[in-house]
Amino acid sequence: LSTATLTYDSLRYGEIEDFPETSEPVWILGKQFSALTEKDEILADVTSRLWFTYRKNFQPIGGTGPTSDTGWGCMLRCGQMILGQALICSHLGRDWTWSPGQRQRAEYISILNAFIDKKDNYYSIHQIAQMGVGEGKSIGQWYGPNTVAQVLKKLAVFDSRSRLAVHVAMDNTVVIEEISERQCGGACALAEEETALWKPLVLLIPLRLGLSDINEAYFEPLKQCFMMPQSLGVIGGKPNSAHYFIGFVGHELIYLDPHTTQLAVDPNEDSQFPDDSYHCQHPPCRMHICELDPSIAAGFFCQTEDDFDDWCAQIRKVLKGLSMFELVDSQPSHLITADVLNLTPDFSESDRLERFFDSEDEEFEILSL
C-alpha cells in the first residue's frame, strides 16, 4: 500500500488539511458540531476515539509469523477501532473524552489493554489474525469488512467482562428475532428474570452499495447512519485500503486512517503505559463520499433494549425512502439460502474488481435499485 510507510510525524505536519470553514453541520458518531464555532470540540472528540494503526516489533503472530502488520493489517485495525468505540460507549459513555498526559481511569486502561499487540489479549492483532484462519484467511492476508465483522463476533464471546452481544446481520437484513435469540444465548426457556438482562449489543451490517463504485442513491442513507446516537461508524475504504469512518461534513466523509506504522507498546506491571500513540491528535482525514469502496460494514451500539427499540424506530423512518438494508421482525420462511442468493458479477472490469473482490464477497447480495 502506497500509504503504508507514512510516519505519524509526516501525517501530523502538513499532510492533513484543517477542518473546512463551513456552515454545514459536522456529524461524528451521532453528535452534531459546528465547524465555525466548535473546532476545538470536534478535534477533542476525534482525538478521544481509539486510533489503531499498523505496528512493528510485536511478538511473532502464531509464534513464528509476522512481527508487523504493515501492508496487510489495515482492515484488522479498523475492526479494532469500531469495537473499541463500542467498548468506550459501554464502559465510559459516548461523551467520555481522553485527557493526554494524565493517569487514566481503570476502565479505559482495561479497554486499551484488550487491544495491545500480544497473543493473549482479547482483541489483539494476534487474536484477530489467528481467528481469521477459521474464516479462510491465512495470517498476513488482507481482510474485507465482512471477514473482520465475523472474527470480532467470535472473539467477543471470550470477553466475559464486557458481555457484548455482537451480531452480524447478513443478506442486507437485520432480523429482530435473531438479535433477541442472541441476547438470551439460546436459553430463552429459562425463568424470565434470568433472561431479562440485556447484553450491550454491537450490530455490524456488512453491505455492498454498488458493484465497482458506490451508487449515489446511497449517499444520504449512509450519512443518516452517522447521525444516529447509536452510531459506531463504518469500516470500509478504498480498494484494499481500509479506513474507519466516523462522520461527515457535506459530501465529505471523516475518517481515521490506520496507515501509519508505529512501534508496538509494552505495558508495565500495573498495565499503565504511554497511550498518546493510540489517539489521533491531528485534524481527521476527509474524502468525498463517491470515492468510497461499495463494500462496507456499518456498526451500531445499543447499550439497552430501549436503545435498540429506538434504533429500530429510527430505521423504520429511514426505510420509508431508499435504505441500505431491511429491518424485519423474523426471517421469512420462504427466504432462499444465502448460497442461492450469491450473484456472479460481470468481470468485464476484472482488473478493478480483483482489488477488492475477495472470497468473502460471495456472502454479499449486490443491492439493486
TrEMBL record:
Its main location: cytoplasm. Signal peptide: none annotated. InterPro entries: ATG4_LIR (IPR046793), Papain-like_cys_pep_sf (IPR038765), Peptidase_C54 (IPR005078), Peptidase_C54_cat (IPR046792). It is an enzyme of class 3 (hydrolase). Keywords: Autophagy, Cytoplasm, Cytoplasmic vesicle, Endoplasmic reticulum, Hydrolase, Mitochondrion, Protease, Protein transport, Thiol protease, Transport, Ubl conjugation pathway. One of its GO terms (biological process) is autophagosome assembly. Its EC number is 3.4.22.-. It is found in: Cytoplasm, Cytosol; Cytoplasmic vesicle, Autophagosome; Endoplasmic reticulum; Mitochondrion. GO terms for cellular component: autophagosome; cytoplasmic vesicle; cytosol; endoplasmic reticulum; mitochondrion. The keyword RNA-binding does not apply. Belongs to the peptidase C54 family. This is Cysteine protease. The lineage of its organism: Eukaryota, Metazoa, Chordata, Craniata, Vertebrata.
